[in-house]
């Protein structure tokens, strides 16, 4: 039994839609949730339900006078009887009377005229049936549920400009606070009550319908009238999202919104909550929540007036089928009443305008098909009328893309990437709402396909959508449905490793520390891929001798780009056969090629000019050829190494010329190579590269090896998924089967070493300046350039206080005299973070030390290696 007594005046309203009341286990959930809410909150619970799914559509057809109404009624009766059988209830005892009412409505004298009051009665039967059977079932489960006729309590109010249809079939209800009403309602004897959505009482005592979305609105009206603690809308999605999850799987659950933002999102996009239902709760100060019946443990979306104001884009949405009407009139602004004439013509055709854009000679408006009947006839008639006063052009179909959030105006500077994205499309109209809550772009519908996921990512990337605000943004849709793979706990969090790091830090910082076992694990994972014949490690990522040895011990060769790297390899791994060394330079001086050729390593060339200018150097040799496949890819523009603007690779248009030059010099081209960039996240990338190179190799005829480069990504952020080696491997196996005659070669760098390395640094100072707290480190962009150069993300942890919760927000900066000397903004670190603490920058094993420099005459960082498994053959 619920603990709240019937006398309690604290209420919680729960609303369940059609799919939530159509199955037996869903009613079990309703009963359980109602009881739980009552027990937890000491409140009484009012449950508002919709009709079983599909029933209202049937009733609408009957109310519209469908010829087969009798059949439809019979089917509805059968449907409800079957459901009662599933609920193990006696159909005649529970619904006999109600089903008779439904049947009688078909022989009612009002049928012929389809009187509005008759239509309202027909439409209301679905909720009366579902609530009656639900109450019977819940009582049978031992719950103290009372059944309430909503028409006794919700009074339709008549608005002056409403026509007779709207006054009966699309009504609003009075929700002015009324103590007598509240007292009378509370007098009902049961602790738990069940009532209908969608219906209310007309002034004449008959039924009046709330219109579409009516059940949400009913719950909101009851919530407002009862001054409820909360109105919970239970539905079949987990809440409102930052975009439609079906289109943007990375969309975030919005866990907390204020009424105005929620209203805007409900109006422009998400269909989970009817926009009409928000105002009654807002006016009465009643909190709302959207929750998922199948996943009741998720936080859902809370909507209330106390939500902390977080500026930023909360959601993007897309509405299709928008019609634009562009009106050109010469010198229109000089004409008094021009706009009045224009809008009078829209009114005449019953069209309500959504967005408006204007210039000196043009006014463009949009028509939303969900608000208007916009068919070709209406548009032709409108155009004809408008042609009397201006030149008219109808542009359709268009898509309206809307960004919703607080403070759109102050966000404009963050939207540059978004502008750039729209710059590629034709934007017909941009409109900003006067409440500063939305910004809408109208583009051709055809251009909108696939745009939302990219736009969503760009908004996050540019900080316009502040997803790090955990008070507003919850999990991604993909996480909720279980489609996300997570990176593992990093090695340095283990107690032993962390103590080892702290003691190394005492020897001085900045200091890189590499965890050999992590390098070995990555190397072994790559070595186990059957499709790959030869593996070279790109030592530019990290050329520490111990790492080179460990990687060679796993069967890798080494790839170098300079004489310095070659010399490092020969010194660190003297036993490495020269066939296992690859030289892939870019614009290197002649002497470095000579050095490499002299040593006997494999040399890759990527231009014709070298052959022309240094023929004697290459005559009679075997070489590999690096081509540019015409495009780049990678985590940042600066690491893309393909396409016209990139300095790397021979364009395909010059391959013939290169081969002719080579033949003349008796050179054999035995390898074909492409590396299009670093940190590539496109899973199909390598397989595609192999496919293209395979095609070229067939034409060259002398190729033995196809090198598809490196570029494998690692998960730097918590949201990044680990690279799917299995899928990668399967893709490579598949494409290799198409070109079985070639050795498949890879040359990754980052993947092998990035996660093995951390940069340790001591906190120098903690300083507050005008609201921003900064933690200073003794390592700066000289020690780790990636954040300054690529805006790259490296997790930052306070190793000294690793067990403290990281709850305060700091910018983490270095000691270099450059504004770009910032490791991370708005990072969470323990509140007590102070001078002398050891900070750790994670995943710094690749392109960390190898790109470090002595700018500002700061010394290079120190380096240490820990934690091999004894099978590494490392030279220390
Ligand atoms: N092969 C060639 C020809 C390369 O140019 C590179 C990297 C690799 C292989 C190895 O790529 P990886 O597997 O590491 O992505 N400093 C940048 C990365 C520059 C990569 C340069 N070339 C960063 O820190 O992200």
From TrEMBL:
Residues 327-400 form the ACT domain. InterPro entries: AceGlu_kinase-like_sf, ACT-like_dom_sf, ACT_dom, Ala_racemase/Decarboxylase_C, Asp/Glu/Uridylate_kinase, Asp_kinase, AsparK_Bifunc_asparK/hSer_DH, Aspartate_kinase_CS. PROSITE patterns: ACT, ASPARTOKINASE, ODR_DC_2_1, ODR_DC_2_2. Keywords: Amino-acid biosynthesis, ATP-binding, Decarboxylase, Kinase, Lyase, Nucleotide-binding, Pyridoxal phosphate, Transferase. Pathway: Amino-acid biosynthesis; L-methionine biosynthesis via de novo pathway; L-homoserine from L-aspartate: step 1/3; Amino-acid biosynthesis; L-lysine biosynthesis via DAP pathway; (S)-tetrahydrodipicolinate from L-aspartate: step 1/4; Amino-acid biosynthesis; L-threonine biosynthesis; L-threonine from L-aspartate: step 1/5. Its EC number is 4.1.1.20. Pfam families: AA_kinase, Orn_Arg_deC_N. Transmembrane segments: none annotated. The keyword Metal-binding does not apply. GO terms for molecular function: aspartate kinase activity; diaminopimelate decarboxylase activity. Its cofactor is pyridoxal 5'-phosphate. This is Diaminopimelate decarboxylase. It comes from Pseudoxanthomonas putridarboris.
